[in-house]
Amino acid sequence: MMRGSSDPAQKKRTITILCVLALFLVFLYAYYGSIFGSQSHGASALEYGRSLRKLGSSYLGGDDETDGKLDETLTKYGQEDGDDDITVKSFPVCDDRHSELIPCLDRNLIYQMRLKLDLSLMEHYERHCPPPERRYNCMIPPPIGYKVPIKWPQSRDEVWKANIPHTHLAHEKSDQNWMVEKGDKISFPGGGTHFHYGADKYIASIANMLNFTNNNLNNEGRLRTVFDVGCGVASFGGYLLSSDIITMSLAPNDVHQNQIQFALERGIPAYLGVLGTKRLPYPSRSFELAHCSRCRIDWLQRDGILLLELDRLLRPGGYFAYSSPEAYAHDEEDLKIWREMSALVERMCWRIAAKRNQTVIWQKPSTNDCYMEREPGTQPPLCRSDDDPDAIWGVPMEACISPYSDHDHKEKGSGLAPWPARLITPPPRLADFGYSNEMFEKDMELWRHRVENYWNLLSPKLEPNTLRNVMDMKAHMGSFAAALKDKDVWVMNVVPEDGPNTLKLIYDRGLIGSIHSCLFNIPPDL
């Protein structure tokens, strides 16, 4: 070996470690990170970084000596070798009124550009990204008075009011126990529109309806991933975490403003989105249970296309828990909706698994048998053979039923192991990518070692429970998130839309995530 040359493998490992350390710092910004206080318009990245260091020292363990070194590093940033003048590269800070700007979900932009959208189809709540000349090239400031967030698990039940200055929901939903304003905090008693007396009791009642052991909805590990549509402030998903169930809580940025930001401030997984005209950014057969509690969705519109999107997302034998006036009311209008909805789901081969008081739970079939036995011409039809149920980025919804693969049909189910064994068991859909079990196990072991090293490097500088919301920007098979299982964090696994759609492997491991394009902004609410 020539003198001065380096081992390529060692160099690659070093680059990987530096990249992931940078990733951790990004998430410190995302969850704790808008901890810079209010800044004037045009403040530089240099001052932003100094403010981060000063306010973050309470949990990053900084000292005066380290502060001096950081100041020196910041001062030298952008200075070329041999130059005496200091050139600081910086981005301006957006105007304070943009503290909650979500670039591709900006309703003001829709109005200004006069986009012709069908409001009845919720198109105005879907993604509409600005053209290049209207994009912001500045850093989003935190709200005035922003504080370091309350740590998990206390954050499930209370957050700083200054961090999400929207208190009208507390007044509007005060009789439903969504949230309560208490001094400088907002507390979350665990209630919802349908479960005023607490999500925990409501969850236990659903498990009881399904005859699950000990009224535990996880059904001995067989029910792991849940989709909650119209989730409000995500108390349903928040209370499922203690049962080893992870929920993708979905809500739009609507008249209730950004409810999802409340969920994320609480440390609960959530995503901004809507059942509109495009497929949701999740692969087929991702969830064991879908849930809708008073979500005000017209499930009968467009030949039942929204129910068919839920059908695409549910695993074989998956459940849809629906709590709504149509399920129990006796006035003529609600009865008409109930009859039509019952007829639709029957044609979709769903059956009623349980019905009690104000809640009905339907179950999707476990095989293709019922689909094959339907009369010719029955609506909705089966999807075309060339339709890919996992093609999801910007793909319009289809009013059709996605039949199961030959594997799932023969298995009479998904064939997934119960949680937590599911996390480390090679998923059946590995074969879709030509991956072997050995490749899966090597990837898992590689990331286990990496995460162990990252944690050892970071833990001396972090107080317990400092990290909560984490995002993996190129998740591949989800092994980074799997290696964090015993840490008190949750991971939003992002898979680029221009590569292999391995997101279904991530869901098959009992994790959650989304597909995304690197050409567009990821909503800061992730």
What class would the helix/strand composition place it in?
alpha/beta
Largest sheet: 7 strands, mixed
Strand-residue proportion: 5-15%
| Strand arrangement across the biggest beta sheet | 6-5-4-7-8-10-9
Please provide the count of β strands.
13
Number of distinct helices? 16
State the end-to-end distance: 47 Å
Helix content: 25-40%
The best one-word shape is globular
Topology (SSEs and partners):
Layout: H1 8-33, H2 45-60, H3 64-76, H4 107-113, E1 158-160, H5 168-172, E2 180-182, E3 185-187, H6 199-209, E4 225-229, H7 235-240, E5 246-251, H8 259-265, E6 270-272, E7 287-293, H9 301-313, E8 314-323, H10 332-347, E9 351-356, E10 359-363, H11 369-373, H12 406-411, H13 421-424, H14 437-458, E11 469-472, H15 479-483, E12 490-496, H16 503-508, E13 513-516
Parallel strand pairs: 4-5, 4-7, 5-6, 7-8, 11-12, 12-13
Antiparallel strand pairs: 1-3, 2-3, 8-10, 9-10
Helix pairs in contact: 2-3
Question: What would your notes on this structure say?
Answer:
The protein contains 16 helices and 13 strands. With 526 residues, the protein is of the alpha/beta class. The protein is globular. The two termini are 47 Å apart.
Short key terms for the protein model shown above:
526 residues; alpha/beta; seven-stranded mixed β-sheet; three-stranded antiparallel β-sheet; 16 helices; 13 strands; disordered N terminus
Describe this structure in a few short sentences:
By secondary structure, the chain is an alpha/beta fold. The protein has helices at 8-33, 45-60, 64-76, 107-113, 168-172, 199-209, 235-240, 259-265, 301-313, 332-347, 369-373, 406-411, 421-424, 437-458, 479-483, 503-508; strands spanning 158-160, 180-182, 185-187, 225-229, 246-251, 270-272, 287-293, 314-323, 351-356, 359-363, 469-472, 490-496, 513-516. The strands form three sheets. It has a seven-stranded mixed sheet. A three-stranded antiparallel sheet has the order 1-3-2, with no helix packed on it. A three-stranded parallel sheet has the order 11-12-13.
